[in-house]
Every structure is written in structure tokens, then in C-alpha cells.
Amino acid sequence: MAEKKLVEEITSMDVDFTQWYTDVVKKAELMDYSSIKGCMIFKPNGYAIWENIQRLLDARFKATGVENVYLPLFIPESLLQKEKDHVEGFAPEAAWVTHGGNEELVERLAVRPTSETLFCDLYHNIVQSYRDLPKVYNQWCSVVRWEKTTRPFLRSSEFLWQEGHTAHATAEEAEERTLQMLNVYADFCEQDLAIPMIKGRKTDKEKFAGAEATYTIEALMHDGKALQSGTSHNFGDGFAHAYDITYTDKDNRLSYVHQTSWGVSTRLIGALIMVHGDDSGLVLPPHVAPVQVMIVPIRQDADGVADAAGGVKDALIKAGLRANVDLSDKRPGWKFAEAEMRGIPLRIEIGPKDVESGQCVLVRRDTREKVTVAIADAPQKAAELLETIQQDMLERAKKHLESHIYDAHTYEEFTDAVENKPGFIRAMWCGEEACELKIKEDTTATSRCMPFEQERIADTCVCCGKPAKKLVYWGKAY
Amino acid sequence: MAEKKLVEEITSMDVDFTQWYTDVVKKAELMDYSSIKGCMIFKPNGYAIWENIQRLLDARFKATGVENVYLPLFIPESLLQKEKDHVEGFAPEAAWVTHGGNEELVERLAVRPTSETLFCDLYHNIVQSYRDLPKVYNQWCSVVRWEKTTRPFLRSSEFLWQEGHTAHATAEEAEERTLQMLNVYADFCEQDLAIPMIKGRKTDKEKFAGAEATYTIEALMHDGKALQSGTSHNFGDGFAHAYDITYTDKDNRLSYVHQTSWGVSTRLIGALIMVHGDDSGLVLPPHVAPVQVMIVPIRQDADGVADAAGGVKDALIKAGLRANVDLSDKRPGWKFAEAEMRGIPLRIEIGPKDVESGQCVLVRRDTREKVTVAIADAPQKAAELLETIQQDMLERAKKHLESHIYDAHTYEEFTDAVENKPGFIRAMWCGEEACELKIKEDTTATSRCMPFEQERIADTCVCCGKPAKKLVYWGKAY
């Protein structure tokens, strides 16, 4: 049967999670490889998810006073080099433009890997007085970091993201903005992506090149691996010194600004797939699903069926839902499988008998529960069910997260957990990079973050036995 | 007076239109030069206009079945070279990436100047059967064409645009889509940007590199120069042959697809400035104005004034308008001048006496007409006035266009018109490129388009005197 074939072509996630992921991306038609090494193509189903993420996140940004801008794609090498740590972090993976038209450039240009340096150059030019502060700018764009290996949404030479860059009069205000945006990310992920996050601070080893402090949100994928899902950096006045960004305060004294930057990327789509997906394909939270309800007519050539299906679609759209009807010449079972593969949260089935009795059947993608309702009630019931699905998906993801956090008090417990218990490991740490390196060397696990909610589950470092300073979440990560 | 200074710094458009344009861009804080030659910075006021253009145009696209995608930034040189005319048109102005990270690339990559070749590569891979057609894809992105000279919004090495690329089973369907999208552009420009367009076909000399036919919308700027504002191309099956894009039809025969592409760019913002602006700055049509109503309190420290202003703002926002209140410590006159400079369509003044009498004053940006209304009626009155402004701006632009179209029957009339009558010149043409070249050489005017509404105003070519084939709009152009 055709409908079985579509599903059979997906590897089960329990058999091979990596292959399952690749299969879902391909069969749900989210992304495709391009003929440019390391670069991906966002197909309509994948890009439409990104558009919803953009729309919802951008509204959250603007509610906090963010203004959108667009800065150039290119960074002159000399500009990139002004901040020592930053250039060391990014120059090795930059793509370099050396020729414009038929002429060799006097100075080569990096295709932006991130735009701190450009925003610094801008702020250097436009910030003079305290009246010019704060600057809270953001841009939606693509960035390029030359990668040898590619995984759809998770790692590619070019990816889409937003990068916020702010300048403030005081250190306190910069720290406040850094944490504010981390919370915007966490709230968005929880409320709209149905993905709970562990919030915390990165260790110095893991922080952004040039930052004083990096904060992160970390999610747990279905296979127990962590995914860094968004970061927010406080630069202090380091970049301001390197790029000479000063302002005169109310008392006419010259001060350096304090800066932040923060970003999330199309990685979030990878998180959606790996947190919510199942062996039938994608499962999308209703808030970001490009199509929320797919109506599938049964015996669509029978009297009144196509009309009734179209009527339901119109009523749903009128009610503000994103609905479509599948009138293709495929069999209903195949259409069911396709809608499931694409992760459409709700399916409505409507056949000749339903038309007769004025009813239709609503089927949830996440639980496959069915409920029969009067056609006239379909819009209201669908809207309610979508919100229920959204909440239930979050609850399930929370339970999965909570049941995959393990405390390790000894190194033996730690290494055992990394090997046998996929998930986050909570363990105390002395604060030394040497222990992070040893743990990574021994287990491949890395420090994910020092959670904001600190506890003292032991007195000594899980690795070296010296006095413990911080509770850290550890884990294998994408 | 401070408020006078802001305005005085703008050159009058009648004195020096070019300088006026640059002044408006700078003083309205739309755009800034960057330290990368040829690249511009979109500042918040400028980018917000682009966001509104994107939102409105994208909705129009999607209503016709367009799906958004995102393709890579880079094009391998070998891929660019497959279509002969196309590579000749674009390779000379491409920016070339030669190094990724620390390694020299085996093949250099062009930063996309336009993405026909990438879409062809994609369609080659994903189109097999008639069931896969049509493909109606679009992407919003930036493109790079190496330019020596820069003018904000009109000419820069990198600019923002959308590019639609479609593939169809038949030549008829491709032609239909080409014209459909040109009409989408023209309707959008007329209804949302309040800019009337001349629609027509480009001569072979002016058509897109690789196209069978290029259609264009041409607008007339305040100084009488034309601005090509959007183009839609029918490629026939030329690219399909070069990139081997075939499908099997219902009878299992192999056929080549027929393709189109179409785009508008941030040039449209240049058109907005040059069609509607005046000596006080920008004048924005309400549909795309980032802020539609600016509320300026008079004596904002007086009892109840700031509160009343805030209340009006909230009521306007609740009514669906984009409103803001200027509570800065500047003088009211300065705030008026700033709101005018930014082109905000409507200003609301509210002072202590107004608060007492429950009134406020609405001031139109375009005509400066004032009307006093009850505070409670402000949202409804503002909404009405904004729509009136939108319509009046279109009417004024139409009148300007119509009064700047001149018919030339002889070459003397033609050269006289180019010199003394800024605007479009309608004249008959024999169809030979030699006459286009001579006219450009003699007058700097170029053929803008062969309008869809053809007339026969003379029997012979205005240039060579041979039998006339087409009525052509000519003009100096940006």
C-alpha cells in the first residue's frame, strides 16, 4: 500500500536517531542539499516554519523596544581584527571575498560570520551623547562559517539567524538587557515551540569570543543529547575600547558604552524536529505550524464531500486558523501519512456519511485521538484542540527533560551516566578549565551551563576532588 | 531656533534635487554609508519601511500561490556559466569568494547577483513529472553587484530584494505568471505606495540577461526622471535547455519547463522619497509608514497633558493604527519638524487647553491642513484621514505623471523635450537598436518601455524616419 511505503521509508528513531532525523528532514520536505558544499536549501515547508518563528519572535523583540536594521554582508579584514579574541574565534572559519568584478580588492572582505564588528563600527559613528543611548538594534540575515560537515538545520556553512546588538550607558543596563533577551528566548521556546529550556551561564571555556559573559538556553533532544538553542552575551566595555565607542554623559564626562549581543538561528527548527518528532515524522506545535489543520475528504468525488471540505476550510480560516484541504488525487490513507509526516497538528476527515449527518472527525497528530464534532462546531473545537495540543506537547517535553536529568556525585557516577543515561548530568565543578578538558577527553560530554538555579549537591569537584564552586549541567551536545 | 535649523539643513529640491535627496535620506535617518565601499546601512527608519513593503507584498504574493524558500548565498562559477547571456550579464560585476577558512577553494564562488542559476539547479533536481509543476518560489534576500558609485536605495553593491522564480509546464502559463506578477507589483505600487506606474515591455536592448521578454513598471520621480521600479521576465525554455530541466507530461512525453523570474528591491524606497517628498523632508503614504500618527504634547509638563497624549496613543493603537507619542525633552516645534522630516502622515497636537476642552488637533503631513476633533473621536477621524491622505497622495502623483508625458513626432521635438521638459516622452520607434543607441548618445534618454497600451502617434521612427513599429516611452532614468 502506497501510504505504508511513505512511512516505511523512515528509519525508526530507536534504531538510528541520526538517520531518522535525516529521513524526516527529507520526507517532510523541509530542506535539501545544494550543489554548494556545506550550503543547504530551505524548501517551502522548512522556510514557512522559520517565517512563523520570525514573526512571533520579532513581535516579542519589538515589545521590548528592539529596532530592526540591516548592515552589510561584508567585513573588511582590518575591521574584524580590532578585537583580538573575536578575530581568533571567527577568522579561521570565514569565507573571503578577494575580487570584485574583474578587479582584485585592495583589502579582502569576510562574508559576515557574525556582525559585532560592523555594529561597533556603526556605534562608533553614531553614538556621541547619553541621549543617543541605548541603541537596541537587531537584524535578520544569513551568516557564513566555513564548515567541513553539514547537518540540516544544525550545522551548515550558511545559516539564517537574527543577531541583536545593543549599546548602553552603564554596565548594569547591559547586564539587564543580556538577561532580558535570554528570557525572551526561553519564554518563546517554551510558549511557542513547546520546548522547555535550562537557563544558565556558560563557563569561560564555552563563552563567545570577546564576551565577558555568555548566557545560554539548552534544550534536551529526544535522544538525550543537548542542543544549545540561543545565547546572549554581555561584552562589558571590551569592544567599546577596541572600537572606540564613547559617549558624553550628563555631566559631560567621556565614558565607554557597554554592549550586548544575542542570537537564535534556524537550529531551532532542528530542536523542533528532535524534541517533538516521532516515527511517523514531524510533530509541530500549533503556534509555529505553517498549516495547523489539514482537511482530508474521504471519497471526495461523492456528492457534497469536496464542497463540505471546502466549507470547513473556509470556516477555519475565518476563525483565524491556518487550514488547508487536500484535494489531490491521492488515496486518503496516503494523505493521512503525508499530513503526519509534515507534522500538521490536526487533521479533519470528512466523508459522505459525515456530510449526511453534518459531522466531521478531528484527529490529533500528537496522540492520534479522534473526536467527532458537528461541522458547525469544527472551527471552535479545532481552535480549542490546537491550544490543548500546544500545552500537552510542552508538558510531554517537560516530563522528558525532567526524567533525563541525573545527579553525579562521583566521577564513576559521572562517566557511568554519560555512557548509560542519555540526558543532562548535574555535577559540581571546581571552576578549572582542566577539568572541563579532562571530562570532554574521557567522555565527550561538555559543560552546557552553570544554571541560574544553583544548588550544592556535593562539596567537591566531580572531576578533580578540589573544593566545588559551581553546579554545572553536563551532556553530549549537537 | 532649533526647529528651523533642522529644516534649513535640507537643500531645497528645486535648487538641487540630488542634494535634496541625500539630505532627506540622512536627516530622516533612513540610511547611512558604511566603511565598506559601495555598501549601505539600513537604519531603523529606513528598514521599517522595507518591513512594511515586505509584509504587504508578501501577502499579495501568497494570495497568488507563491511559496517562500531560501537558497544559498553562493554560486559556483561553473553553475553561473551554463547560460551564456546570463553569465555575460552578471559575471563582470560579481564579488568572488576564493578562500574558505584558511584554504583556497577548488572553484571560486560568486556571491549571488541574482539566483536564476541556483533555482535552475534546484528545479533540475526536484522536477520530474507534470505533477511537480508549477513551482512558484520566491525568496527575500540580499544580492551583490559590484558598483563603483553608490546612491542610497538606488545603487549600491549590496541591496535587499525579493526574487521570484517559477517553472511551468507550458509557455502560456509562464507568460501568464510573468504578467500576473507585473500586475501584482503595479497594483501594490499604486494602492500601497501611492505611485502610479507605466506598464510595458522592455526592448531587447534593455531586457534581462537570458530572458525572452522583460516587462517593467516605470515610475516618474518629482524631478522628471524615470525609475525602473520592478521587472518580470519570461525565460521561455532557454534556461531549461541550459540547465536540463525536463518533466514527463500526462502522456509520458519528456518536455522542457518554461520559466519566469520577477523582482523588486529597496529601490522602491528611493521611489517613495522622490515621488512624495518635499522641502520639509519625507512624505510617506500611510499604508507603509512605520509610524502613521505622531502625537506631540504641547506643554507636556502641564497637568494632564502627558496622560491625555498617552491615552490618545493607546486608543489609536487599539484601533489598529501605528501611533507613537513624542515625550522627549525637545520643544514642540522641533518635534513637529522631526515628524515632518520622517514623513509621518499625521500629527496630533494636544495641549492644556485641548485637555480642558476634550479636544485635539490633527495635522496632515501632505497638505498641513488642521482639523480639531474631540479626543474620543480621534481614532476614527485619524483612520479616515489616513485613508484620505493615501488616496490624495496617489491622485497628486497621478497628476504629476500625466502632466509630464510629452509626445514627440519629430527628432527636434524629441531632443527639445529631453532638454526642456523633464518627464516621459512618447515617440514611435522602428525597432532597431541603432536608434536606441543614437538617442542615448544624443540625449542620454533611454527607452523605458513599450507600453501595453499602444497607440500610433506617427508613422515613422522618431529617430531614423523608417516605418514605425512601436510606441515607446523614453526618458532620462536613475
Radius of gyration of chain A: 25 Å
Sheet with the most strands: spatial strand order of chain A: 3-7-8-14-11-10-9-22-23-21-20
- Please give the largest β-sheet of chain A: 11 strands, mixed
Helical percent range of chain A? 25-40%
Structural class of chain A: alpha+beta
Portion in beta strands of chain A: 25-35%
| Largest inter-chain contact set | A-B, 52 and 52 residues
Question: If helices are DSSP runs of H or I spanning 4 or more residues, what is the number of helices of chain A?
Answer: 15
From the N-terminal CA to the C-terminal CA of chain A, the straight-line distance is 36 Å
Mean pLDDT score of chain A: 96
Total E-strand runs of chain A: 23
Contiguous uncertain segments of 5+ residues of chain A: none
What oligomeric state best describes the polypeptide chains here?
Answer: homodimer
Principal-axis shape of chain A: globular
